[in-house]
Amino acid sequence: MAMLLQLIFALSAFIGLGSAISDALAAEFGYPAGVDVWCGKAYRATNSSFEPGGWLDMPALSHTPLLDLSIRPRTNLYLSVEEYASVIIDAPISYMDGHAFVNGSFNKQDNLTSPFDTLFIDVSVVESGLDLISGQNITINTTNNELGFFLSGLTARLEPYELVITGASGDGAQFYTATTQLYYIPARTDGGSVTKIDNLYGGLLVQDYLSNSTAWTPLFPYTFYVSWDGWLELSIDNLRVFKDKGYNIIHIVPNAGLANEAFDFDELDEFLDVMDEIELWLMFDMRWTYKNLTSVEMQVNRLKARKSMLLYYTGDEPDGQVDALNATKITYDLIKSLDPWHPVSLCLNCLNYYFEEYTLGADIIMTDPYPIAVNTSWSTQYDTVCNTTYGCCGCDDCDGNFEDVPNRLDLYSQYQDILNLPKKPLWGVPQAFGNETFWARYPTPEEEVVMNMLFVNHGAKGIAMWDYPTEPDLANVTSALSKVLTSNTVSSFLLGSFHAQLSVDGLPRVDAASWIVGSQLLISVVNKNYVESPMANWKKPSGAVTGN
Ligand SMILES: *[C@@H]1O[C@H](CO)[C@@H](O)[C@H](O)[C@H]1NC(C)=O
Ligand SMILES: *[C@@H]1O[C@H](CO)[C@@H](O)[C@H](O)[C@H]1NC(C)=O
Ligand SMILES: *[C@@H]1O[C@H](CO)[C@@H](O)[C@H](O)[C@H]1NC(C)=O
Ligand SMILES: *[C@@H]1O[C@H](CO)[C@@H](O)[C@H](O)[C@H]1NC(C)=O
Ligand SMILES: *[C@@H]1O[C@H](CO)[C@@H](O)[C@H](O)[C@H]1NC(C)=O
Ligand SMILES: *[C@@H]1O[C@H](CO)[C@@H](O)[C@H](O)[C@H]1NC(C)=O
Ligand SMILES: *[C@@H]1O[C@H](CO)[C@@H](O)[C@H](O)[C@H]1NC(C)=O
Ligand SMILES: *[C@@H]1O[C@H](CO)[C@@H](O)[C@H](O)[C@H]1NC(C)=O
Ligand SMILES: *[C@@H]1O[C@H](CO)[C@@H](O)[C@H](O)[C@H]1NC(C)=O
Ligand SMILES: *[C@@H]1O[C@H](CO)[C@@H](O)[C@H](O)[C@H]1NC(C)=O
Ligand SMILES: *[C@@H]1O[C@H](CO)[C@@H](O)[C@H](O)[C@H]1NC(C)=O
Ligand SMILES: *[C@@H]1O[C@H](CO)[C@@H](O)[C@H](O)[C@H]1NC(C)=O
Questions:
Q1: Ligand with smallest separation from the Cα of 49
Q2: Number of structural domains the chain divides into
Q3: Can you tell me the distance from the alpha carbon of 271 to that of 191, in angstroms, rounded to the nearest whole number?
Q4: Pocket of ligand 8, candidates 31, 326, 330, 334: which has the most ligand atoms within 8 Å of its Cβ, to mutate?
Q5: Contact in structure between 189 and 81 (CB atoms under 8 Å)
Q6: Which of 26, 253, 482, 536 is a plausible cystine mate for 510, CB 3.0–4.6 Å?
Q7: Mean pLDDT throughout 460-472?
Q8: How far is the CA of 321 from the centre of ligand 10 (A)?
Q9: For residue 6, pLDDT beyond 60
Q10: 479 lines ligand 12 (CB under 6 A)
Q11: Can you tell me the distance from the alpha carbon of 437 to that of 440, in angstroms, rounded to the nearest whole number?
């Protein structure tokens, strides 16, 4: 009976079982009371369709060019033991964001107007006026300009420093400004680990504590959501079994069936001791409890000084569940105040539903479109149609094919452009389950690799599949893939450069991407056709000297 109950809880993550929201919340969203919703859509045959809202549209574009100056620290935090930091400055010409730009700068010396091609910039600390960077320049319409400075004028503390950048044309007639937050925080004294986010390439950076290394090494996280009560808990040796397959981090799904909806923490500690010992990094999931701040505080305080602690995970499909719009941010702020050394992630399920609000509460955004063996136009669970305002088909506004994966990742990237926010890393959640609810069967090993690699080709900086244990052939193929993706050779490309989409001719439905580091090129080609296709050609990206 207990097992059955847990199973129902676990499934409710997908199918909206018991997802009625409170009348007060329904009123805030403008929904009728007492209607079960998923992604804001009514999905029971007894309820009719209404507008879910929360849809982010492309804004009207400007007819004249804008200069969109922005600044962000190279890494999301610096430690008191570090002497040097840097910022990334973007100054693109945009038609979506920014301020008026006129391509001219007047020179009083000779009364001539020259092109406005250089922006003269200064960066300072708002509260003290301390200059960090002065008298430098940035070429108009360039991005990812990195400028360094010494941290010696600042004192490490928990609150971030507000930095401001000002940029002006040579004549001073055109002036731009932007701000960012710099976290310069105390180093740990309790032996706990620190995880940084690289705000340039989007990867995680960790220190290999087993060798006492102080170097920051990129980590491409490759894992599954792992069932605690259904598998891991059954034997402490499972930790080594999992790591030996090649997965470098473990995302443990807590037990909803316990009174605290989390873990027996004394028991978990024994597992964490082993993880510390073998450096199996932890993605700590608080899906059932993340809105309970008392519980979050207790859990974070228990976990935060662990060596193997990598990052937190709060809302599991908070958009699907229609959690309060401020829920993820409130919890994020609490976690940051208790543990500023580790990032916070969450997973969104909807195509386009209050993206801005829910992602405010995360450093890393995950997405889980599950397109295999699913009917996306007719709900096999609720016997209704599914469309953009109604129904729950298991994959929100999906087409039920491989394209759902890159479409979703590209859209989430575009939403961040529309919102004009610094880009947060996106991670993918490939489908590695089936033969249940909406999904008639498991993916095949080939389909599994295709989904994984489509996420990677479109810029995902981490992979966590749902879920483990999975079918033996999926465990096999992802174990093999883990050894490729987490190898230094491959992850140095994925986390040390930008991905570029390559155009492919000769065959439709072939997806190719490239990464260039120095004179080396990595290419990944994914065939979305269900037949072998040796005929596709791709164009060699410019800048590539040698292939490998
Ligand atoms: C929605 O459907 C439920 C039954 O599933 C019903 O009790 C309720 O009255 C319906 N509400 C509306 C507003 O149609
Ligand atoms: C620039 O224009 C101003 C005002 O018209 C004039 O007084 C000045 O002599 C000019 N200078 C030069 C170098 O031509
Ligand atoms: C400004 O004008 C110069 C000269 O015409 C041109 O080369 C440059 O591309 C222009 N810059 C922008 C951002 O439009
Ligand atoms: C921009 O800065 C560089 C490096 O400091 C300097 O060499 C260059 O002359 C500057 N360009 C302009 C237009 O001031
Ligand atoms: C600015 O850069 C973009 C991307 O590199 C390019 O497509 C565009 O033509 C440039 N715009 C101007 C005005 O130079
Ligand atoms: C790392 O440091 C600890 C504590 O100082 C020490 O016991 C251990 O031997 C060191 N490990 C390595 C690989 O140097
Ligand atoms: C919140 O969590 C605490 C600690 O587990 C628990 O005692 C309390 O009952 C929970 N509150 C709610 C509303 O679930
Ligand atoms: C968060 O939102 C809920 C529901 O919309 C509201 O009741 C609550 O007051 C908000 N909390 C804060 C701290 O803003
Ligand atoms: C989805 O279900 C509908 C209704 O049963 C059916 O007509 C349609 O062919 C199904 N589509 C797919 C892709 O299975
Ligand atoms: C979605 O389907 C419902 C139920 O058939 C219908 O009332 C609604 O108009 C449809 N919405 C759209 C956007 O087509
Ligand atoms: C699918 O699930 C059903 C019910 O849980 C089970 O009896 C059956 O063996 C499963 N089929 C496969 C191919 O896993
Ligand atoms: C998994 O891989 C092992 C070792 O390569 C092989 O012996 C086994 O048959 C494979 N299992 C499946 C289900 O593919």
A1: 10
A2: 3
A3: 18
A4: 326
A5: no
A6: 536
A7: 98
A8: 21
A9: no
A10: no
A11: 7
Task: Please give the structure tokens belonging to residue 483.
Answer: 């050894």
Chain centroid to Cα 201, Å, comes to: 12
State whether 491 and 400 are in the same domain: yes
What rounded mean pLDDT belongs to the chain?
94
What distance in Å separates the CA atoms of residue 453 and residue 175, rounded to the nearest whole number?
43
Query: Rounded CA gap, 409 and 82, in Å?
Result: 34
Interval 137-169: pLDDT, tens:
999 999 999 999 999 999 999 999 999 999 999
Ligand nearest to the CA of 307: 6
Location of structure tokens 């969109």: 68
Same domain flag for 165 and 226: no
Residue that has been written with the tokens 């000084």 in this structure: 305
Residues 368 and 464 in one domain: yes
Name which residue sits closest to atom 4 of ligand 9, judged by CA.
Answer: 378
**Is the minimum distance from the CB of 487 to ligand 10 under 6 angstroms?**
no
Residue 47 CA to ligand 10 center (angstroms) comes to: 12
Asked if residue 24 is part of any domain, the answer here is no
In this structure, what DSSP letter does residue 538 have?
E
- Compute how many other C-beta atoms are within 10 angstroms of the C-beta atom of residue 448: 25
pLDDT at residue number 376: 98
The ligand 9 atom at the shortest distance from the C-alpha of residue 377 is 1
pLDDT higher than 80, residue 18: no
Angle (nearest 5°) at CA 446 between 445 and 451: 95
* Cα–Cα distance for residue pair 355/346, rounded to 1 Å: 12
114 lines ligand 4 (CB under 6 A): no
For 526, the domain range is: 497-548
Cis amide prior to 467 (ω within 30 degrees): yes
Distances (CA, A) of 236 to 18, 152, 222, 269: 33, 46, 20, 11
For atom 9 of ligand 2, the residue with the nearest CA is: 111
Pocket test for ligand 10, best of 390, 392, 396, 397 (most atoms within 8 A of CB): 390
What's residue 547's pLDDT?
32
25-35 per-position pLDDT tens digit: 999 999 999 99
Closest Cα to atom 4, ligand 5: which residue?
A: 141
Contact 431, 465 (CB under 8 A): yes
Indicate the pLDDT class of residue 533, thresholds 50, 70 and 90.
confident
CATH of the domain at 125: 2.60.40.2950
DSSP summary character for residue 234? G
Q: What is the DSSP letter of 225?
A: E
C-beta of 377 in contact with ligand 9 (< 6 A): yes
> What pTM, to 2 d.p., does this model score?
0.95
